[in-house]
Design a protein that fits this description.
By secondary structure, the protein is an alpha/beta fold. It has 23 helices and ten strands. The strands form two sheets. Strands 6-7-8-3-9-10 form a six-stranded mixed sheet, with helices on both faces. This is ATP-binding cassette domain-containing protein. The chain crosses the membrane at residues 12-39, 151-177, 254-273.
Amino acid sequence: MIARLTPQAGWPLVVGLLLVNLVLGLVPVAFVIATSLVIGAVPDAVTGGRNSPAWDRLVVSFLVASSIFVLQQVLAPVQVALGELMRRRVDGNVHERIMTTALAAVSIAPMEDQDALDALKEASRGIDGSMETPGMACAGLLALVARYTRLAGFAALVGVSVSWLAASALTGSVMVFRYGNRGGLRKYSAEWGKSLPNFRHYLYLRDLGLRPEAGKELRIFGLVGWLVDRYEGVYRTWLAPVWRARRRIYLVPYLGYTALGLAVAVLVFVLVARAGASGALSLTELALALQAIVAALLLAEYYPESDDVTQLGMLSVSALHRFARAAAAYPSAEMAATGAADPAVEDQTGVRLEAVAFSYPGSHRPVFEHLDLELEAGKCTAVVGVNGAGKTTIAKLLTRLYDPVEGRILFGDHDIRDFPLDRWRRQVSVIFQDFVKFELTVAENIALGAAHVPPDPERIRRAAARAGALEFIERLPGGFETPLSRAYVGGRDLSGGQWQRIAIARILYAADAGSRLLIFDEPTSALDVRAEAAFFDSFLDLTKGVTSLLISHRFSSVRRADTIVVIEAGQVVERGTHDELLAEGGRYERLFKLQAERFTERTESW
């Protein structure tokens, strides 16, 4: 997997770093040869004096060894710099893939699947908050070239100077150590993966103590001590199994690897000592063999530039693949219809849901089994019901975040699946309960309601005025150009009600830019009673001539709608105007009066 990822850094960089690592692998071998020649030349140079040929050979050998040492010091930072460049390029590409994969699904289903969402978060965390990233893994893989080139070179020196039996035993010993090291790291990584649920709990508690919005209640309710105890407990629960696994993985096996390494080292040194004692080795050959053996044995150690990063650095890529597989299980591709119908050219028309059945992916409980609902053209239809009745699900179906399992949704005479997805969504604008608070300027936050057209300052201002946001916007230091976050210079935070007015302005801007179906899902949940009443007093004027759907659990909020629909257990149980439904004396009448009584009681208590 790492080898397939590495070319994303660009072949010139890959080849350049590969050559640098190859040279860095050969340079220590050449240094051992040069220093052995220096050692071997010392006796003759001392005997012959400074003007002897032996002295000249000593000087030349010393200069060569010094040059090789300098070359190694020069190439080491070059290796680090090129590795860092590779890390940035590869990590940048992987980060882009994470964003692309996350946004590629036209359905919202993968983002509401907890397993898929966990994989996506792990992939992102592996890039942004990890010491081991995919880019580091690619650089670490190429760094192994230097290590194993050295091993091959030192083994060759031992084979030439002592025996190939000694060279083979030495190489085998080093590789056994390396196998044990990598195998232990793989097992440890698997144990680490098992600990991720506890790790996520640990991160939640850690972040909870650092979040400003949680700070007030933690202190007021006296929860600081509880949080510290809970944090420490989860920390131990997370790491205790990992520590036990680490002892099991590394302790006993490494005793065996150490014993084997010592035995092989003793064997090789005995062979060298015997050859030296018999006079079969010159001083140069003896120095060569001893340096090569020690240097080769040192290569059995942990490689900090490669081992952790090549094993752990690809976790984010693996997590990304898991998310991609989970996303592929949902019918996103089929949703991006290639139909030639264009909703923009349809005459003013309403929307009809006919015999719609739907259940969320992975759930066996149907939200709707046979839902029939009509949104009349140019009028406001309100949908009310208790929590869990499926009101927000209707908004998701109309915006094609999901498609019905059965039945169809018609816009005029066309099934909305006949329209290209992007064109259909340009005709629909929605404000959800959990609308996005973009850390952008006021103008940008509003203009995103119709991102497919160039921002129009006049329309932006008009939408803000209609949403009742113009007054507080003009009080901001930069007006419409004020960033809506204190994280930016000149930025400001807004209250919940002010943010809701910005979101309402966003949907009204979309309507002004041509959206023909407006969906308001609890649009006033953060407004106070007076502001909410004022909004709904003008609501029909704001949406006049546009087909709109108003979703609410507050019955008093929808009384001015042209048509009110009561949904219960996934079915339309009542339909009519406010006065008609009150006259029927059914569910709407009972729930409306119940809410009105509670409001009256609270008002009287004030």
